[in-house]
Amino acid sequence: MTIPAVILFFIFHTFPLLQGIFYSFTNWRGYGDWDFIGLSNYVNVFKDMRALNAYGFTFQFAIVSTVLVNIFSLLIALGLNANIKFQKTLRAVYFLPNILSILIVGFIFQFIFTIFLPQFSDALGIQALATNILGSPDYAWVGVVIMAVWQATAFNTILYLAGLQTVPEDVYEAAAIDGASPWKRFWKITFPLIAPFFTINMVLALKTFLMVFDHIIALTGGGPGYATESISVLIYRGGFEGGQFGYQSANAVIYFIVIVALSIIQLRFLQKREVQQ
Amino acid sequence: MRLISSLVVSLTTAALLVGCSDISSPKENMVELELFSNKAENIATYESMIERFEEQHPNIRINLYAPPDAETLLRTRLVKNDMPDMLAIAGNALYRELVSVDMLVNYEGEPMLDPIQPAYLQTISDLEGSEKKGIHGVPFAANANTMIYNKTKLKELGEDVPKTWDEFIQLLQKAKAVGEIPIYFTFQDSWTTMPAWNSLAGNLQPKQFADKKTNKEVTFQGTHQEVAEKLLQLKDYGHDRMFGIGYNDGNREFSQGKGVFYSQGNWAIPELLKLNPELDLGVFAMPVTNDPTKNKLVSGIDVLFATLKESKHPEEAKQFISFMMEEQQQQQYMEEQSAFSVRKDVISDDPIMEGIQDNFTEGKISSFPDHFYPAGMGAQNMIQEFLYQGNISKLLKDLDREWDQIQLRY
């Protein structure tokens, strides 16, 4: 069984990756003739203002979203884990955003930002929300963050919920007898015990947000200007619409290395502070 | 065994008999051609023409294929090396690329090019660039980059269509003074900034700009100052929410009577009339200079036909293209699609288009500047950002830098 698995894995996973690396050393447009051009694609990526701009936006977006998603999903998970009515129904409701397609959610949010919010704020006489934030190069990223966090919180909540199930009930009983306050109980018991889940949530969220694509296509298309162009969008745009297959392959290879490196650093750093059980 | 062989024999004879008696040309001589089109709006029109063509040429079958997001699909098919026989695409950067990698058949000197307005043949040869010789795409239908206006509102203002830039600006001021939105801009979609940019640059930029720019003879910074200034000046006559409203919402608002002018090409007119059939519309070419004789209409090739060199049936493809260029087909297409013919003798009589009729008859036409920009440069995004920030020198510098950098990416 192993050999067919290895072959399948190689054909569908490793081979395309190697192909991408191979093309990054050529000037291939995706069609026609091509030549080897050595490392010049890589050199040009570093000189490319549009790529640097995309890196800037993507990191800003990913860090803010990762932090917000983890805060919200931990809060929701704590709530859903408590003794409340309709616990199972609520868990299902809170998971709903994860099932919806990001593109559809994007178009709904686009409607909210473009038509609903401005009209609503007009009616209330609030000037701050009267213009569509997706149309402003300075604030469009906030719109993308709002939608991304809304959608991604569901999945991370499930992971935190799983983590909270692993905390044994008797430690809380012991703490209650010692007279620990709810805040102390969370900070000294719950949080350290679910630390491995915190680590995995941080790493997964950051990785997903660094590869953000659908959100942007549905909400802003990368605009206004290049204000919300993420690296995945840039690679797609340049590669398919601009015929820069080789060049964007180099961009993708660099990005792959960046993401792997970041994930490893993050894992190392976060695992150190986990409780050794 | 004997049963099977006798069955086979009788079936073959039957097939042969049917072949002889029924259809004049047997199946083996049937030529199938795939026609790839990038427009979804004209499928029904094409189909009725193809039907007529197949009646006249019973041995040729045309398979029309017009998928959504056709340009991206065509690029993926390029990668897979699975190209159709014929293309019906716009005269834009994609066409320029296909010519530059030498994939299309040369039609220079063919009689079917004779009735075409010289301006469009010039556009085609300009698109192909200075390195290539020939006409690799046969222009079929044209579009116009216009200023659409609400006739009722202009009458209320007591004004006529402006002939010079100063007149136009005065008119915009007057409209603003009486509380109208002078131009209904929709800048949330970056491409909607291009009709105005193209009108300005199409009239003001030096000839052969793209080739000279690639050869580093000219720069945006040296030649596009006035274009950027005038575009910025127009923005003053927009409305509060122009950056938060996209093309579709803009069509709806303009059709409901918001705004006197709408900076869009003729392609927006069917959409506007669908939303409000009562709307009284007119179009004109935006006057860019103060010399009315110098103001040209920016018009491009909306559809051109091209044949792939790899196609096994170039002769039949040529027959089809010549057929499409005939007057009858041209008339039908222009009527059904409210497009403009590239033939000198076919003139649109649509009353909405009256304002630009003279441009076509007199050949006062110039081509879309952005069709010559390198693919993937994303000029529209830079222009959108510029309109928001208003920094002329940054825009021109960015355009220059991106253009030069893109040359390094192939």
How would you describe the overall organization of this protein?
Chain B: Pfam families: SBP_bac_8 (PF13416). Chain B: InterPro entries: Bact_solute-bd_prot1, SBP. Chain B: This is ABC transporter substrate-binding protein. Chain B: Keywords: Cell membrane, Lipoprotein, Membrane, Palmitate, Signal. The complex is a heterodimer of chains A (277) and B (410). Chain A is mostly helical and 277 residues long. Helices cover 75% and strands 0% of the residues of chain A. Chain A is globular. Chain A starts with a helix and ends in a 5-residue tail after the last helix. The model of chain A has no long low-confidence stretch (mean pLDDT 88). Chain B has two domains: 31-143 and 300-364, 3-Layer(aba) Sandwich (D-Maltodextrin-Binding Protein, domain 2), CATH 3.40.190.10; 145-298 and 370-408, Periplasmic binding protein-like II (D-Maltodextrin-Binding Protein, domain 2), CATH 3.40.190. Chain B has helices spanning 2-21, 43-56, 70-80, 93-100, 118-128, 151-157, 165-177, 194-204, 209-214, 220-223, 225-235, 247-255, 268-275, 314-325, 327-337, 354-361, 379-389, 392-406; strands at residues 31-37, 60-65, 86-89, 138-145, 147-150, 261-262, 281-284, 297-307, 340-341, 365-366. Chain B is an alpha/beta fold and 410 residues long. The radius of gyration of chain B is 25 Å and the shape is globular. Residues 11-26 of chain B have low confidence and may be disordered. In chain B, the strands form two sheets. In chain B, strands 1, 2, 3, 4, 8, 9 and 10 form a seven-stranded mixed beta sheet that branches. The interface between A and B is large, with 42 and 41 residues.
